[in-house]
């Protein structure tokens, strides 16, 4: 008896049908697994790019603190073309990027999928950039302590943290950037240090006297994440002039460029030389074609009356002057009521006050103020 026989046609058809059914069921599952793996790999790559940019920028901040002449990539002018210099993109592509003190927006394409920044992490999806609730120059009422509120003008929005500058100088007398006594206590010798040593020490010591005054006057602000003095370059970024420097790649030389060009305008216009109040000087500068040098009015007003019933003419930044050590070895920058940055002797305490920049969470914002709320002291005589 021959037991070897082939499959019947019906049996073959049955096997084929079963295999087809299995394939129909298994293929989508396999494809889904492959696609999920591609998405997961793309998301990991997007998050690595996000972390890589943040790490690069953190390293840049350290380099800049050690050398103020270091040219940073991580600025508000950062573009997607800068990213390959900062991190290896592999096969990924940066579609959109925005930086303001930290990375605030990023959109990446990887493995055929798009990933967007959301809540400080990359997520799958071609999302729209969240619309900022607050813009630079907005006036906000904020809770700085359990019993005290203040008004700030927005400088930056970093996620749920707002960076803003107080709308007025802190009450109290005007102060030196660093007094001779504080300079000597920090390890220098004001009367015998050479100009070069003195200038170097100013960068190392910082605005000890002004900082002490600021910290004392804000000592009860327990709802503020960080309190600091403004940086001169950060204030200059509010001007059209700085945007011109950015477009020409000259921001590293902002001190010499700004001083040289504005001094030329000053020397050519008697109206600027002879103006006697903040508002009059702003008008004269504008009339002379120098509006691009001016900071926004909200950044240069409301100079608090001091204890001796006189008013300051500005507030210190934390930036000592670096570009002209020979002529001005012991000068620092301050924001003047004229609407510009001016340099003054660091030990002079007669006309400059302090105005803090604060970092505060959105949860401590009480309201957005629709109208400017300040007392304008522009009629102060003798503004310098």
Distance between the termini: 121 Å
**Count of DSSP E strands?**
14
Content of β-strand? 15-25%
Radius of gyration: 30 Å
The secondary-structure element order is HHEEEEEEEHHHEHHHHHEEEEEE
Counting DSSP H or I runs of 4 or more residues, the number of helices is 10
Give the low-confidence spans: 373-384
Query: Portion of residues in helices?
Result: 25-40%
Overall SS class = alpha+beta
Textual characterization of the structure:
With about 375 residues, the chain is of the alpha+beta class. The strands form three sheets. Strands 8-13-7-6-5-14 form a six-stranded antiparallel beta sheet, covered by helices on one side. Strands 1-2-3-4 form a four-stranded antiparallel beta sheet, covered by helices on one side. It contains ten helices and 14 strands. It folds into two domains: about 120 residues, no CATH class; about 230 residues, no CATH class. The relative contact order is 0.13. Helix content is about 35%, strand content about 20%.
Secondary-structure map:
Elements: H1 9-66, H2 83-86, E1 93-100, E2 102-110, E3 113-118, E4 121-124, E5 139-143, E6 149-158, E7 161-166, H3 180-185, H4 195-205, H5 208-217, E8 226-228, H6 232-236, H7 240-248, H8 254-267, H9 270-274, H10 278-287, E9 314-320, E10 331-336, E11 341-345, E12 352-353, E13 357-361, E14 365-369
Parallel strand pairs: 9-12
Antiparallel strand pairs: 1-2, 2-3, 3-4, 5-6, 5-14, 6-7, 7-13, 8-13, 9-10, 10-11
Q: Which short descriptors sum up this protein?
A:
384 residues, alpha+beta, 2 domains, six-stranded antiparallel β-sheet, four-stranded antiparallel β-sheet, 14 strands, disordered C terminus
């Amino acid at each position: 008896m021959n037991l070897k026989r082939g499959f019947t046609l019906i049996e073959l058809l049955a096997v084929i049908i079963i295999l087809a059914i299995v394939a129909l069921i298994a293929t989508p599952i396999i494809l889904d697994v492959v696609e999920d793996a591609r998405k997961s790999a793309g998301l990991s790559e997007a998050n690595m790019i996000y972390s890589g940019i943040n790490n690069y920028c953190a390293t840049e901040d350290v380099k800049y603190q050690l050398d103020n002449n270091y040219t940073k990539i991580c600025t508000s002018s950062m573009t997607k073309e800068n990213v390959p210099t900062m991190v290896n993109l592999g096969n990924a592509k940066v579609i959109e990027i925005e930086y303001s003190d930290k990375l605030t927006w990023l959109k990446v394409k990887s493995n055929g999928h798009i990933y967007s920044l959301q809540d400080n992490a990359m997520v799958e999806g071609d999302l729209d950039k969240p619309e900022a609730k607050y813009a630079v120059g907005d006036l906000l009422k904020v809770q700085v302590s359990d019993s005290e509120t203040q008004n700030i003008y927005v400088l930056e929005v970093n996620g749920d943290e707002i960076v803003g500058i107080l709308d007025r100088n802190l009450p109290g007398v005007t102060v030196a950037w660093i007094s001779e006594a504080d300079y000597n206590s920090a390890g220098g010798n004001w009367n015998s240090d050479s100009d070069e040593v003195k200038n170097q020490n100013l960068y190392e010591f910082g605005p000890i006297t002004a900082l002490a005054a600021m910290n004392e006057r804000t000592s009860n602000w327990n709802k503020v994440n960080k309190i600091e003095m403004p940086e001169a370059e950060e204030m200059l970024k509010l001007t059209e002039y700085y945007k011109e420097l950015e477009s020409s790649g000259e921001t590293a030389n902002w001190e010499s460029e700004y001083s040289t060009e504005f001094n030329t305008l000053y020397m050519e216009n008697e109206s600027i030389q002879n103006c006697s109040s903040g508002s009059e000087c702003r008008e004269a500068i504008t009339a002379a074609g120098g509006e691009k040098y001016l900071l926004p009015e909200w950044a240069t007003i409301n100079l608090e009356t001091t204890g001796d019933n006189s008013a300051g003419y500005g507030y210190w930044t934390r930036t000592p002057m670096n570009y002209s050590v020979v002529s001005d070895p012991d000068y620092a920058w301050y924001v003047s009521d004229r609407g510009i940055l001016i340099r003054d002797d660091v030990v002079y305490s007669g006309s400059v006050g302090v105005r803090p920049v604060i970092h505060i969470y959105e949860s401590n914002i009480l309201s957005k103020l629709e109208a400017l709320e300040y007392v304008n002291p522009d009629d102060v005589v003798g503004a310098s």
